[in-house]
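Backbone-to-sequence.
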């Protein structure tokens, strides 16, 4: 989910930069890119996987 959020933030930053929209300092394209990078870093670190990543721990489905 954080990967999709990062992609959306990058698209917004690109549109602001490409259209040369004048915004205030809070909504600048640089801030959107930095927030997108933070979301992407959290996604790569494994935070925000959701419930599907759980349950794949050791011992699930193993029979001895």
């Amino acid at each position: 989910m954080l990967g999709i959020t990062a992609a959306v933030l990058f698209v917004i930053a690109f549109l602001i930069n490409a259209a040369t929209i004048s915004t205030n300092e809070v909504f600048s394209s640089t801030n959107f890119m930095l927030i997108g990078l933070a979301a992407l870093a959290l996604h790569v670190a494994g935070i925000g996987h959701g419930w599907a990543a759980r349950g794949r721990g050791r011992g699930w489905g193993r029979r001895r």
